Amino acid sequence: MSHSSEQPLERVTIPALQQWKDKGRRVVMTTAYDAVAARIADPIVDIILVGDSVGNVCLGFDNTLPVSLAMMNHHLEAVARTRPHALLVADMPFLSFHVGSEDTIRNAGGFLQRGADAVKLEGGAKRIEMVRALVDCDIPVMGHLGLTPQSVNVMGGFKVQGRTTDTALRLLDDAHRLQEAGCFALVLEGIPAELAARATESLTIPTIGIGAGADCSGQVLVFHDVLGLTEGHRPKFVRAYTNGFQLFQEALSRWAADIRKGAFPGSEECYRLPDQLRHAVANWVPSSSTSR
């Protein structure tokens, strides 16, 4: 689907998301780490997240912790150049919002200067001060609660959260504190469906679920997971809509086979010399100076 041949899509805004929450219209969000993925996703989704999940999805890391601000800037700039109609949100990577308000504001502001519409940061009560500082500077913030990947070491792995009374009630409290601090939406990841439903019902801002049941205001999955581009074990909450990894390998295999049997490139993939030049080239012989 090409923007150039159709009416340009209307830009998604934060007020629009709030209106959709009030009307019960579900929000669709996926990731993009480069211009190709952004162009594929943009006509379809409402929010594009340049996630620090780029670390384990694309860069070969085991988790998101090694992803730096410079890496995030690199991928954000690639996506922003496509000028998406979707709301463009950038993840604040580990250590980019843990070091004081001044540095947090500078780091998040840099994302907006590079084309992001908003930033996302992980954590609850501990991050309230940072959220307030950003919102006070007119930097829109999306919160992230539940299974927060940057806390993988504290959690002891990628485990479902909110399964005890204390942790479930703390999550609800954190959700409301983030709303009061000015977050325009919350990602709820890896929590029981009933807990996410209660959070969504009690909040006025939208919730975006990932492994949090069907009652959130919207859903997010990683682009590569939806298209089946990731190998190995997939989390319970992932539904792949095609086997992209296999499809891409099959296409590459056919191409490689054509090369090996001399079927690629064909005449339709070749450039041709003008007749008069073809004759000159065919009759060319090396001179003594070029043959040495």
UniProtKB/TrEMBL annotation:
Keywords, comma-separated and alphabetical: Cytoplasm, Magnesium, Metal-binding, Pantothenate biosynthesis, Transferase
The subcellular localization recorded is: Cytoplasm
Catalytic site: 189 (proton acceptor)
The EC number on file is 2.1.2.11
**Family annotation (Gene3D superfamilies):** Phosphoenolpyruvate-binding domains
The lineage's top-level taxon is: Bacteria
Name the residues that bind Mg(2+). 52, 91, 122
| Annotated binding of 3-methyl-2-oxobutanoate, by residue | 52-53, 91, 120
Needed co-factor(s): Mg(2+)
User: Which InterPro entries would you find in this protein's record?
Assistant: Pantoate_hydroxy_MeTrfase, Pyrv/PenolPyrv_kinase-like_dom, Pyrv_kinase-like_dom_sf
Q: What GO annotations for molecular function exist for this entry?
A: 3-methyl-2-oxobutanoate hydroxymethyltransferase activity
Q: In which pathway does it act?
A: Cofactor biosynthesis; (R)-pantothenate biosynthesis; (R)-pantoate from 3-methyl-2-oxobutanoate: step 1/2
Physiological role: Catalyzes the reversible reaction in which hydroxymethyl group from 5,10-methylenetetrahydrofolate is transferred onto alpha-ketoisovalerate to form ketopantoate.
Entry similarity comment: Belongs to the PanB family.
Subunit details for this protein? Homodecamer; pentamer of dimers.
The protein here is known as 3-methyl-2-oxobutanoate hydroxymethyltransferase
Organism of origin = Bradyrhizobium ottawaense
Gene for this chain: panB
